[in-house]
Structure formats: C-alpha cells, structure tokens
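Re: that backbone. Tokens:
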C-alpha cells in the first residue's frame, strides 16, 4: 500500500481517527502497549498484567515486523496527534486474528475499546471476507475474558502454553499461565 493510503484516515468518528500504523508510530505504539499492560502506569487502567508478568510486552522490533508482514495490518486510533489505541489484525483466510490490542489507561472505560474492536471486526469481515475473529488471551485474565464475552466472543476451551523462558513476552510471576483461544462469528459484520 502506498504511504498516502497508509496515512489517510480509514474511519473517523467524534474526533477519533482510525488509520493504518506507519513506521513513525512505532515509538508511540510501544509506549502505549507498555503503559496499558505493564508496570505501575498500567495500574491506572483495568487491563494491567503487572501482577502476572514483569518486563516488556512489546518492542520496536516486534512492531516493525508486524508493519512489514504481508498478512497483517496494525491500526491506530488517533485523537488529535496522540495514538490512544491500537490493534493488530492478521488475515488467516476465513479467520482473522485480533491481537496487540491496547487502549491508553487514561481512556479505558470510555467505550474506546469497544469502538476499536467493532472497527477491527468490520474491517476483517468486509475487507478480507473473514467469517470468524479469533484471539488468544491469558486464561487467568477472567476480567478481560468477560469483557470479550460481552462483545460476543466465546471461549473455545483450546489452550496453549505460555512461552516461559522467552522474555520477549514478559517475565512470568506465576507458573500456571496459559493462553485460551476466543472466537466470534462475524456474520453480522458483513
């Protein structure tokens, strides 16, 4: 996609613009994701993983790889000049994968997360003709799983191990972490 296509807003609502991320957004995306999930700053929002994991949640190399991946798109939600939310989508044919979802802790609870998810679902359904959206969530995050269930996702019961020993994903503070696969039918988004 051309740089012009990447910077043009894909959607705009109430001063909030959704657009594809670009290389210049990498520092802001890393800072956003870290602030939403790790360390003391994450405790001002409800999505913190600070009691489960220490260390990093992402880094510039991971974000660069997502921007360069042919089947991935990384969206940012921008208010004014500030990146206040982001999410990754991966085209997996009839299934789209939703990941790297973060909302600024100061904006959590405002409905912004719901807007980002709805935008991602519409994009996957209309652009890729995806029939399902799936994501993995740390199984011990009952509050986060409940949030997704209220958005129509269901726990498939499929579990996968947490990558212990790979500090790119954080430093576990428990020895029982695992991921659960959530999915949603996107039939209503087409």
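Recovered sequence:
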């Amino acid at each position: 996609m051309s740089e012009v296509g990447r910077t043009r807003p894909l959607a705009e609502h109430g001063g909030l613009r959704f657009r594809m991320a670009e290389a210049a957004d990498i520092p802001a995306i890393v800072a956003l994701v870290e602030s939403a999930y790790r360390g003391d700053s994450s405790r001002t929002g409800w999505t913190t993983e600070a009691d489960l994991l220490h260390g990093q949640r992402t880094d510039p190399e991971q974000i660069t790889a997502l921007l360069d991946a042919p089947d991935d798109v990384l969206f940012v939600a921008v208010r004014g000049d500030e990146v206040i939310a982001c999410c990754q989508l991966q085209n997996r044919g009839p299934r789209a994968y939703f990941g790297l979802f973060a909302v600024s802790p100061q904006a959590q609870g405002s409905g912004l997360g719901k807007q980002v998810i709805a935008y991602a679902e519409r994009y996957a359904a209309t652009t890729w003709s995806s029939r399902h959206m799936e994501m993995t969530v740390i199984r011990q995050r009952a509050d986060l799983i409940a949030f997704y269930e209220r958005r129509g996702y269901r726990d498939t019961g499929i579990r996968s191990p947490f990558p212990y020993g790979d500090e790119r994903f954080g430093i576990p503070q428990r020895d029982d972490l695992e991921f659960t696969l959530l999915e949603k039918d996107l039939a209503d988004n087409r």
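Confidence is low (pLDDT under 50) at residues 1-9. Helices lie at 3-7, 26-37, 60-68, 112-127, 142-150.
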